[in-house]
Amino acid sequence: MSLTTLITGANRGIGLALTHACLRRDDQVIACCRTPYQAQQLHKLAEIYPKLAIHQLDVTEPEEYLQLKEALAGTPIDWLIANAGLYGPPEQALGQTDYYAWQQVMAVNAMAPLRLVETFLSNLEAGDAKRIAVISSVMGSISENHQGGHYLYRSSKAALNAVLRSLALDLANKGIQAYAMHPGWVKTDMGGEAAPLDVEDAASTLLLTLERLDAASSGKFISYDGQQLPW
Ligand code: NDP
Question: Separation of 211 CA from ligand 1 center, angstroms?
Answer without folding.
Answer: 22
